[in-house]
From TrEMBL:
It catalyses: L-homoserine + ATP = O-phospho-L-homoserine + ADP + H(+). The keyword Transmembrane does not apply. It comes from Acidithiobacillus ferrooxidans. Belongs to the pseudomonas-type ThrB family. This is Homoserine kinase. One of its GO terms (biological process) is threonine biosynthetic process. It comes from the Bacteria. NCBIfam families: PRK05231.1, thrB_alt. Residues 27-253 form the Aminoglycoside phosphotransferase domain. Pathway: Amino-acid biosynthesis; L-threonine biosynthesis; L-threonine from L-aspartate: step 4/5. Its EC number is 2.7.1.39. It holds the Pfam family APH. InterPro entries: Aminoglycoside_PTrfase, Homoserine_kinase_II, Kinase-like_dom_sf, Pseudomonas-type_ThrB.
Length: 310
């Protein structure tokens, strides 16, 4: 269970005095998630999620809280941070940076394929999220971009087979020659996998886990979603789902000239990113964390399939 820091009743009561949320009614550890200590928190005034940040440096956290506040104020269902009486969204609990955010309703579809209606809703929401992020004043270049791929690939060399190292090197060389500089972009979620989207009655009621968000080209975010939601177990695309995702996205944010030509390279980039991330998680487990390692092979297959498209 991913609760690394226990919070006593007394500590919670003192912490809540800084907010206008009333007294605590229940605090329940959340078992999913790997980065932070998360609790469902019920108070006299509502239902919330309490997060103690275990790894992110304090100075990096306001970007994510400000972003989710910005997006939620613009109609994107994501966790709106609560403010203290002094007006801060970031606070301190048990000596760690901590925040209380709105608890969103709904459940993820993890473990089953999405319906066409669900994937259409996701395409629309992603496009709305991109447009809603326009004007967000804080800049945060995607920390998992090209330099991160190169550095991660370098660290992994001694741990991988000759074939896998060659595949990664080839893909990096290919990606290095794709010019994305003129593509439209802005804020991207960059990890909108099925476990990070909540549905209620067929509608999207929440998007969570913005901790990989940053600035990048928008179509890259759609590529992340396409690979994560529209792939069969052998890495092939499920064409009906992919079409529904694409159509819904472009209906809300019509593509600009020059974007579509980079779609296949971006699908490959998104596959490489998550293959490397999963390899990194397996070969360099962070001490003290309960890492739910996801299968890197799934993303190697997706990368191989996407390479056949170009
Ligand atoms: N704002 C929220 N509303 C409802 N459920 C949430 C919210 N935030 C997190 N959760 C639940 O907590 C789990 C872990 O959250 P997540 O952000 O993925 O954790 P971590 O950052 O530790 O990886 C999610 O799978 C979801 O079930
Ligand atoms: N969605 C990624 C894993 C990212 O980790 P998270 O637990 O922080 O969402 C994957 O499937 O590899």
């Amino acid at each position: 269970m991913s609760v690394y820091t226990s919070v006593s009743d007394l500590e919670l009561a003192q912490f809540l005095r800084d907010y206008d949320l009333g007294g605590a009614r229940a605090l329940t550890g959340i078992s999913a998630g790997v980065e932070n200590s998360n609790y469902f928190l019920d108070t006299e005034k509502g239902h919330f999620v309490l997060t103690l940040f275990e790894r992110l440096p304090r100075s990096k956290i306001p970007y994510f809280l400000d972003l989710t506040e910005w997006l939620s104020l613009r109609g994107i269902p994501c966790p709106r941070p609560m403010h203290t009486l002094a007006g801060n969204s970031l606070s301190t609990l048990c000596g760690k940076p901590a925040a209380i955010v709105q608890r969103l309703r709904g459940t993820s579809i993890e473990g089953r394929a999405p319906s066409v209606a669900e994937i259409s809703a996701l395409g629309t929401l992603l496009a709305r999220m991109h447009l809603a992020g326009e004007g967000f004043p804080e800049r945060h270049p995607n920390p998992a971009g090209f330099s991160w791929w190169q550095e991660t690939a370098r660290h992994l060399v001694p741990h991988l087979s000759r074939e896998d190292n060659a595949l990664i090197a080839e893909e990096l060389a290919y990606q290095g020659t794709r010019d994305r500089t003129n593509l439209p972009g802005g804020v991207v979620h960059a990890d909108l996998f099925p476990d990070n989207v909540l549905f209620e009655n067929g509608r999207i009621s929440g998007t969570i886990d913005f901790y990989y968000a940053g600035d990048d080209v928008w179509l890259y975010d759609l590529a992340v979603v396409a690979n994560a939601w529209c792939s069969e177990t052998d890495g092939h695309f499920a064409p009906v789902l992919l079409r529904a995702l694409w159509d819904a996205y472009v209906a809300t944010r019509p593509l600009q000239a020059g974007e579509e030509v980079l779609w296949f390279p971006l699908l490959r980039a998104a596959a490489l990113r998550f293959w490397l991330l999963r390899l990194d998680a397996i070969h360099f487990r962070r001490p003290g964390t309960i890492t739910q390692c996801k299968d890197p092979e799934e993303y190697r297959q997706i990368l191989l399939q996407r390479r056949r498209l170009v």
